Amino acid sequence: MTLFPRAVNETTSRELRKTFRSPSEIFYPLIFFVLVLTMFPFSIPPVPGLFNSIASGILWTAALLAISLSLETLFKADYSSGALEVIHLSGANLVLVAIGKSLGHWIISGLPIALLAFPIGWALDLNFLTLWVLVITLMLGSATMSLTGSSISALTVGLRGGGFLLVMLSLPFFVPLLIFGSSAATNASLGIVPEAELYFLGGMFVLSLTVAPWATAHAIKIRLG
Amino acid sequence: MSKPILEVTNISLSRAQKLVVRDLSFSVSGGEILRLSGSNGSGKTTILRALAGLILPDNGKVARLEEKLGNITTSSNSVIYIAHRHGLEENLSPLENLNFLSQVCTPPPIRDGVSVLETLGLKTSMHVPTARLSAGQKQRISLARLLMFDAPLWLLDEPFTALDTSSKKQLESMIDAHLDRKGAVVLATHQRFNCKSHVLKHSLPMIP
User: Of A155, A200, B74, B75, which residue is 20 to 30 A from B64 by alpha carbon distance?
Assistant: First the structure.
């Protein structure tokens, strides 16, 4: 893979390798995602067509919560072992490390959740166009969440109640993604082409890619000092 | 007398909003070793973190002079800080940990991970997940950075803790070799150790 600078590649492969050695980190968000989704049918009145009309919104909400919860692990181990300090002092480019970390986090959490949304949405009787739009918006949205969330994760790592703070601080950033992501899927289910929403999500992704890694690098320096 | 590698002028440092070091000044030149001593909580680790550039002093100045010294080429990465915490990812092997650092660090390392781990007598455990190694082995792996990277200033925080007699001897000879190359060492330790050069001492008072 020569697509990215070496530091990005190395960081991503380090993240993947360490996660695959203790895979619970991959399964917890996925299990949480599925569990939240299975709770909804119990709580909604059995009106024909009701669940189908809100299914994409529910899928998006569950994905957003699962990803928010998984963000805490992004820097926790490296901070408490002192590895983050070692990486910083070795003169590594923290911006590239931040991009690598976000990419690794997306491959571990966002990507499997987006792919899992396909069979679950199918089981919830969504049509094919809606399913595709749902998967694409979740992929774009979760990548944005991994990037933005990494900054907040770095800023709150090692703080008392940092996990709670992380979710509280990141949710406002994720709400626009939720609005446009779920409305894209809902529009697709009504037969409307969701171009505008997809452009918006693409724009949010590019914005977070150009801002978040620098914010993350700065946040790491603040937390180490 | 060579120029100082590190010059500290009138620094005050605080930890968790409490002043721990007041108006400290010293300088360390190439070939010199400075030992910080003082009771627990007197600010030894805080000073080392400030020297590494991780924390900024409340007052005063820490200057690391970056120039060519002996056969050590200084650069932006002019310090190696061995902290209390070993700084290793537990799910990865020692070699994977070092290889990752050697890929992302600037400037590139002077020795590769395999040869450094062999030198330190960790050949048999270099592919084992770090979580399965003992505290002493982890300490030795974190010392591997001293051999892997080329930096004129070594900052060592309790480096002899958990080391066995032979590893301790090896670290002592590593320090001697570094001083011979006109490098400088600042270390905090409570243990006795042997060093060919004269050890400068600085004992820190407790600030109430």
Answer: A155
